[in-house]
């Protein structure tokens, strides 16, 4: 039994975690004594998509206090409850270029510069809905819990430690109270702020909370609308300009994502409309940002092409159509036994017709969808003909998928000639039809259902004839051998039974004209003017694709047959008409499968 499928995205996270675990620069924050007790080796990574898929690595379930990472979420709650105009009266939105705990207010208004610095966050905590301290306290904790999709607790020891050492925050609060910006009781305001910072979360929680902002305020796990699209968008905007304090400008250039850091080692980053990222590692740099978290986020942004200023991928469903090899077949004309085998076993072939631009989120959806259903699959066709731009991250994820499938004995075929994608673990095909035919050939060969030679008595057109009539017909047939590329002269061959090898029907296209392969025919099938039931001129030509042996009913032999044995000639025509009707019914069923 196959081991569970591991997504290449999961592999990338695991690899990133393994490479950065030895990065030990920075120091654990100790100015809040309880934070200094954190294990410096903790390191968690998490990615949450907007449809609720989670990828995690390392210590992603270790609880820690959220600290300043809470600020954008509480700001979004304040915007939801009070509205932007009233919030702006008391908290600005301009970056400071200063540290998170700078003692600095707007000279003319006394407002904090933005809600991401401590002064602004203290005021923001008092702006959430509620007429009393207890109502606001409940609103903040329940709001953070709604963002996380689960009920969060508070670490009372950390909260008390912050209160005991929070002289600078206390000074800021009294300064703002004196300026008229902080209108609530100072000690109650500080208690609100200290408690929100002491809420216990995990790296996984951070990814989900950030995905909730990235998804317009809707939690991807619970489906609950936590805040409005407008509130979420404004919170992300302030994160982008102010979330990493005096590193905000360089951060936006490097990672290109709205982000927020915290002194416990947490870090979040959002790609709007696509995903949320969560990181946790207690060692901090001189600016108070997690060293491993920043490094991991910047690398993920680079590898996944997440930079906000990159051209956005065209949104919409990435799967244009999904087909199975037991209901949709290639244009190759196959003998009865092969058709029967494909109908019975063709479910092992899956065809995914993709559309739109392929970047991280769309490629993640492709990888996840295909990986969820691999138990009975042996061949996967990825048709990129309708796809738009294929970003480098998409190539990397498709290669990761193809390599993973290969480990499970599943072959990937990529249909692409124009985009020139690089997927070393896959077979590259020019057309979907050619890819499907290649997979069918492989399936028939592996099932022992591929026939290299089909004698006359077992030919499709003759299966329903009396064996006596088949023997009689053989006297009118001439053996012919065709070399690869040699043309079958249809005006000479009224009917050609393929015994071994194969023929292809080509039409001439372009200027200058060049041959285009419409379809092909294998052993057990027949071609010729008689099989077409008309005498009209045709623009196609029939050529051998490999050394081919046939039994040919020439036009002269057909005339002799109709003169000498009218019953045999009528039976032959009736058999041909019946075979064409059967083929039309089969084609109609396949077209129905394509439409539905």
Give a structural overview.
InterPro entries: Beta-lactam/transpept-like, cNMP-bd_dom, cNMP-bd_dom_sf, Glutaminase, RmlC-like_jellyroll, STAS_dom, STAS_dom_sf. This is Glutaminase. Substrate binds at residues 68, 118, 162, 169, 193, 245, 263. The protein has 596 residues and is an alpha+beta fold. The chain is built from 20 helices and 22 strands. Helix 5 (133-148) runs parallel beside helix 8 and helix 7 (167-179) crosses helix 8. It is rod-shaped, with a radius of gyration of 34 Å.
User: Which runs of at least 5 residues are low in confidence (pLDDT < 50)?
Assistant: 532-537
Percentage of residues in strands:
15-25%
Structural class: alpha+beta
Reported for the largest beta sheet, the result is:
5 strands, antiparallel
In the sheet with the most strands, the strands line up as 3-2-8-7-6
Q: What's the average pLDDT?
A: 89
Molecular shape: rod-shaped
User: Which range best describes the helical content: under 10%, 10-25%, 25-40%, 40-55%, 55-70% or over 70%?
Assistant: 40-55%
């Amino acid at each position: 039994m196959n081991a569970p499928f591991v997504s290449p995205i999961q592999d990338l996270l695991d690899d990133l975690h393994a490479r950065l675990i030895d990065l030990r620069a920075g120091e654990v924050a100790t100015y809040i004594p309880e934070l200094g007790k954190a294990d410096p080796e903790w390191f968690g990574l998490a990615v949450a998509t907007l449809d609720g898929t989670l990828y995690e690595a390392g210590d992603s379930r270790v609880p820690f206090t959220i600290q300043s990472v809470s600020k954008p979420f509480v700001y979004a709650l304040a915007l939801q409850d009070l509205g932007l105009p009233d919030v702006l009266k008391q908290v600005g939105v301009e970056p400071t270029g200063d540290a998170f705990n700078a003692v600095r207010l707007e000279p003319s208004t006394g407002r904090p510069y933005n809600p991401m610095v401590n002064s602004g966050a203290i005021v923001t905590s008092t702006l959430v809905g509620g007429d009393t301290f207890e109502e606001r306290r409940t609103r903040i904790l329940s709001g953070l819990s709604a963002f996380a999709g689960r009920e969060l607790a508070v670490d009372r020891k950390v909260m008390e430690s912050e209160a005991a050492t929070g002289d600078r925050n206390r000074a800021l609060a009294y300064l703002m109270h004196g300026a008229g910006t902080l209108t609530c009781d100072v000690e109650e305001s500080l208690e609100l702020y200290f408690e929100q910072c002491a809420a216990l979360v995990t790296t996984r929680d951070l990814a989900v909370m950030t995905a909730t902002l990235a998804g317009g305020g809707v939690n991807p796990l619970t489906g609950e609308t936590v805040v409005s699209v407008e509130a979420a968008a404004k919170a992300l905007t302030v994160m982008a300009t102010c979330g990493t304090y005096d590193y905000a400008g360089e951060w936006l250039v490097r990672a290109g994502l709205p982000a927020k850091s915290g002194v416990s080692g947490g870090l979040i980053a959002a790609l709007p409309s696509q995903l949320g990222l969560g990181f946790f590692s207690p060692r901090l740099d001189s600016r108070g940002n997690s060293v491993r978290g920043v490094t991991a986020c910047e690398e993920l942004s680079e590898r996944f092409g997440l930079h906000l200023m990159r051209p956005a991928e065209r949104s919409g469903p990435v799967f244009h159509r999904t087909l199975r090899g037991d209901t949709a077949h290639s244009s190759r004309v196959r003998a009865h036994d092969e058709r029967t085998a494909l109908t019975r076993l063709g479910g092992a072939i899956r065809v995914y017709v993709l559309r739109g631009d392929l970047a991280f989120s769309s490629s993640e959806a492709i990888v996840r969808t295909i990986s969820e259903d691999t138990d009975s699959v042996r061949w996967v066709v990825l048709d990129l003909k309708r796809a738009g731009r294929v970003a480098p991250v998409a190539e990397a994820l498709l290669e990761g998928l193809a390599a993973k499938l290969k480990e499970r004995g599943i072959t990937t075929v990529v249909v692409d000639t124009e985009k020139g994608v690089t997927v070393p673990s896959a077979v590259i095909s020019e057309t979907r039809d050619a890819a499907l035919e290649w997979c069918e050939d492989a399936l028939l060969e592996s099932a022992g259902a591929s026939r290299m030679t089909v004698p006359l008595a077992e030919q499709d057109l003759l299966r329903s004839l009396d064996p006596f009539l088949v023997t009689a017909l053989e006297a009118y047939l001439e053996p012919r051998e065709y070399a690869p590329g040699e043309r079958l002269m249809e005006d000479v061959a009224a009917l050609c039974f393929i015994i071994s090898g194969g023929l292809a029907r080509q039409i001439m296209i372009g200027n200058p004209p060049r041959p285009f392969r419409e379809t092909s025919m294998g052993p057990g099938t027949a071609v010729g003017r008689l099989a077409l039931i008309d005498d009209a001129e045709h623009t196609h030509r029939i050529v051998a694709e490999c050394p081919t042996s046939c039994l040919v009913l020439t036009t002269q032999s057909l005339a002799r047959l109709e003169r000498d044995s009218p019953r045999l000639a009528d039976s032959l025509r009736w058999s041909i008409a019946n075979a064409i009707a059967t083929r039309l019914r089969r084609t109609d069923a396949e077209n129905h499968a394509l439409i539905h």
